[in-house]
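Our consortium's second objective concerns turning raw sequence data into structural hypotheses that experimental partners can test. To show how far this objective has progressed, the report includes one record in full. It was chosen at random from the queue rather than selected for favorable results. The single chain below, 303 residues long, was entered without modification.
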Amino acid sequence: MKLKMGNRRIRRIATAIAAILLSLLAVIYAGVSLVTADRLTRPTNHPLRIDPHVLSRDAQLWSTRTADGITLRGWYLPTEARRHLIVLVHGMWSSWLEMGTLGRDLHRRNFDVLLFDLRGHGQSDPSRLYLGRRERADIQAVMAWAHAEGFPDDRIGWLGYSMGGSTLLMEAARNPQIQVAVVDSPYGDLPRLLEAQLSKHSGLPAWFNPGILLAARWIFGVRTDDLVPIRSARSWGERPLLLIHGESDTIVPVSQARELARNLGTSCMTLTLPGVEHVQAYDSDPAGYVETVGTFFDDHLSP
């Protein structure tokens, strides 16, 4: 009898210890997920590291305000003709600096060029990284500024890198005012991409991914499950678009670009480049890239 009572007591103690350990593991999992979600979505603002006048002696300090109260900052490179404006939209965890020399080269082709930082990046106001959702308001604010400066929709060209290109595609699905665009290395399906890439950015095993995504959504308001430009691409219609993607892209696989191209339809010109990494098409051949992009804008923007 005493032996049976002892066994029951041992089982109760073991059950209690197991419950405590499971609770402790759950708390650790939730805590690590929360801290990681915060780290991956926090602002990446930084001081300006170059004098923009090295790009153009006419560079003008620029800013505008979004509908939700974020001040965007950057630099405007004007021309005397003020005929065509090219808006450059950078990627995640970057700034206009990654597109600075491209902006300089397009300006030398007599395009007005706007180089600006998305919210939470570079010199713009701090904000969480929303991976293209709230950044769409930045595109809308830039468009309103361009209209106020006298540029009609058919004389504004948009060029987006990576997340910037995906943001343009998602905004264009609901905004026909985006009429001519170039997208370089955009993601086509963010949920699918995160399955492969999130662990690389977090440094954690993949079984932390659900917790990180849950914390990002419910604690920080960063929702990713419906950020799928491949679906919204069907709304692009007949507007001219140039899609550029490196075949050696280790961040966004070229298969997503091909799927995007199929859904964009016949108005999409696709250029896939052998041996080129993520958003490295310009760096691999600056003159060829500027010629291709510049000619595309010359051909499709209104004279």
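The partners drew two points from this record. The chain has two domains: 1-41+190-226, 52-189+228-300. The beta strands are 44-45, 60-65, 71-77, 85-89, 112-116, 121-122, 156-161, 180-184, 241-246, 268-273. Both points have been shared with the crystallography group to help prioritize constructs.
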